Amino acid sequence: MDASTKPTAHAHGTSGTSEVPIQVGILTCSDRGAAGERADVSGPTLHNLVIDRLGGIVRQYRVVPDERGPIEEALREWADEQRLDLILTTGGTGLSARDVTPDATRAACDREVPAIGQAMVLASLAVTPYAMLTRATAGIRKRTLVVNLPGNPKALTENFDAIAEVLPHAIDIIRGVDTHANRGHAHAHARGGSGAAPTASSTTRMHSHTHASASTTPADVGARTVTAPARLARDVGGPPC
Q1: Can you tell me the distance from the alpha carbon of 39 to that of 34, in angstroms, rounded to the nearest whole number?
Q2: What pLDDT, on a 0 to 100 scale, did the predictor assign at position 221?
Q3: What is the CA radius of gyration of the chain?
């Protein structure tokens, strides 16, 4: 990505946008991964996507077996106690008897956001017809957005790319940010006060919610200050979970 297309950071300080970086949890659902029989490659891939595309901070990471109990427990703990903004699961979204991540997500969430899953399916169908076999969903528990992603790192990346642009806006809405004020400010900024329609490049910048790099910026969490971990080694290979 060259300098002309790379997203720029939002100027904060208005009532319509959040100044707090997105706090993220990554939950890998894999029997073999939880048993230590296979290294987790989808979790680290997702970690890098969160930093690169969202400017988010990964606060929690866990590998659990394909069982509803451990998955639901992690979702409830991270939403209720850790109060994360976003939980991204990877793996267990297919049709096999052990693919229970969507079921656990529905049980843990108060409300579903089905169009997020639909958007990922539509994007993936352009790549493969097998995309229609997913059961991935998304939902909200209290003030936390939960999104299911596939276990295959390549498919995970494609699905994440399909929804990355809207995730910051969705999280702002859940946080209670006045997104209408933000939209008005963004349009005024894009027009430069001249009344001219925004250009394609300015529209791209206008909708970008990229924050400062999470790998170097400490963030205050409760009574302690935590520094986000450095980027993990990128690995986009490996079979589906």
Answers
A1: 9
A2: 35
A3: 18
